[in-house]
Amino acid sequence: MANDPSRRGPSLKARAVAYLSRREHSRLELQRKLSAYSDDPAEIEAVLDDLQRTHWQSDQRYAQAYVHRTAGRQGAQRILGALRQQGVADEQLAGLQDTLRATESERARAVWGRKFSAPPQDARDYARQYRFLAGRGFSSDVIRRVLSDRGRSDGFDCDDSPGDL
Predict the structure, then answer these.
(1) What integer pLDDT is reported at residue 150 of this predicted model?
(2) What are φ and ψ of residue 151, in 5° steps?
(3) Which parts of the chain have pLDDT scores under 50?
(4) Is 138 exposed, middle or buried (0-12, 13-18, 19+ CB in 10 A)?
(5) What is the Cα gyration radius of the chain?
(6) What is the pLDDT of residues 64-104, one digit of tens each?
(7) Nearest partner of 92 among 24, 144, 153, judged by Cα
(8) pTM reported for the whole predicted model
């Protein structure tokens, strides 16, 4: 298929550049998309290597763009998991991981505030709000802090005394 003279359409590199002009893509994501247009994995790898060498494609830039798009709605665990699934190496995630963890509490409070108008009133409500935040990928420590802070500031009686803040 790759060397088929009857094949019509743009070259693999042109297709890859078109994808990258719309948004950042990870190397793995581009590889998957280009595999529909070539049976030769070596040809795809050569195109991807060329794009990385000329800085058209960067997993680091992809990770930063992904974090920018999703950080307001998701926790660090979910974001980092999605990036790993897209083939971004752990070395490239180290700096982003620190930044995400540093801002996770603020982001969890914002997500909680958009969804809930009142602090948990009972154990069932607490569990519902906890599951919501956990489903967004926030850590259990952050969730407990957010839910207990909401309760304290709004008069919800919780086990911790105000002196423990």
Answers:
(1) 61
(2) -65, -45
(3) 1-2, 5-6, 152-165
(4) buried
(5) 22
(6) 999 999 999 999 999 999 999 999 999 989 889 999 999 99
(7) 24
(8) 0.78
User: Residue 149: what pLDDT?
Assistant: 74
Instruction: Yes or no: say if 77 and 133 are a contact pair by the CB < 8 Å rule.
Output: no
What's the confidence (pLDDT) of residue 10? Answer: 87
Contact 108, 125 (CB under 8 A): no
Residue-level length of the chain: 165
Instruction: Give the model's pLDDT for residue 95.
Output: 87
User: Which tokens in the block code for residue 30?
Assistant: 């581009």
Residue with tokens 């967004």: 136
Quote the CA–CA distance of 111 and 76 in Å, as a whole number: 13
Cα atoms in the Cβ-side hemisphere of radius 13 Å centred on 143: 20
DSSP per-residue letters across 73-136: TS-HHHHHHHHHHTT--HHHHHHHHHHHHHHHHHHHHHHHHHH-SS---SHHHHHHHHHHHHHT
- CA distance linking residue 162 with residue 96, whole number of Å: 34
How big, in percent rounded to 5, are the helix, strand and coil portions of the chain?
Answer: 70, 0, 30
